[in-house]
Amino acid sequence: MAVSSNSVLIHLFGGLTVRILMLFYGHYQDSVSIVKYTDIDYSVYSDAAQYVVNGSSPYARETYRYTPLLAWMLTPNSTLHPSYGKIIFVLFDLLAAYLIILILQRRFPTQVALRWSFLWLYNPLPILISTRGSSESIILSLVLATIYFFQNSAFIIAGVIYGLSVHFKLYTLPFCLPLYLAAVKSSDQKKPPWQTLFSFSYNRLLLIISAVLGFGIPTVLFYYVYGMEFLHETYFYHFTRKDMRHNFSLYFYLLYLNHGDDGVFLKIITFLPQGLLLLLISFLFHSKEVLPFTFFLQTYVFVIFNKVSTSQYFLWYLSLLPLLGPNLRFKWIHSVLLFLLWFFIQLSWLLPAYYLEFEGRNTFIYIWLESIAFFSGNIGILLQIIKNYSVQ
Q1: Is this model's pTM higher than 0.85 or not?
Q2: Which side of the chain, N or C, has fewer Cβ within a 10 Å radius?
Q3: Measured CA distances, 128 to 13, 54, 149, 239, 312 (Å)
């Protein structure tokens, strides 16, 4: 259903206005303060884009570990204006809010869809992250667009966009199984998913071919241009990455104590619980109508069970939370308590992390204890969401 309410446009304009004001404020803070508003990642993107403009590889910029497509998109940072990329990220941020509205409108009135979109549109976290120059809004828009087109049975478009999302960020790779299971033919929809796992469906064929093209075309192109350096920096690096400090992960202290140990056992215990849960979620929640819920659960599990977890990862599942809103049977006080818990477990982790990073104190054991509390708190929140989710 198309968005017809003027109030939607008014609020999208309001969200744009807030973000533009934050862009101006960020420019001011960068000019007068030692503590910069602009994210360090934005400097990495901009430098990589400059290398592209100069005819070099974006990977000549140390720590650039993204698809070259991002650097190519931001070449106007060098030729037009340094803030061009931030504007692009802001527009994708607004696109994500608009897609949230469109997805919810399939089953709920415009007023309900708009109200739940406020969780993203006026949320300080995505506003700050996009205006500081983080590119997360691009991948979030791709994921939301995948859901929108898939639920509207546009399997070719959904597949291409999904494939492109995997090209951008590998965390979307587990979505392939619920997408595949949900594309079952109508006569098999009521059968258990393991019985239809190998059944042929024209929709599945379209989805697979388009997803392979969406991922394969840009990947082959950039491999042709940049070779193995592209594959290593964009994909392989993330399988071996170990972040010893800025890391909410339950496994951070284990990996810190075993730094340099690349044994199979360590890899298994840090990956197996995550992998099994992602598979289980795919088979338990596999229908087209609950796809946003499935994506949310998989993303939440991916983040809290991952061996590296940073605050920007939280946006991956927060962007999907508004899609669950109308189906959550929480009382307002219950919602507030869960939010306070989610906020507190992050804040309590940041205290020992601050002493480690900025004062050089040995607080590793305290960070580890806070990581356990962070993990346990998130498990509790996730279980509450599952318990109180109801399909209308």
Answers
A1: yes
A2: C
A3: 17, 31, 28, 28, 11
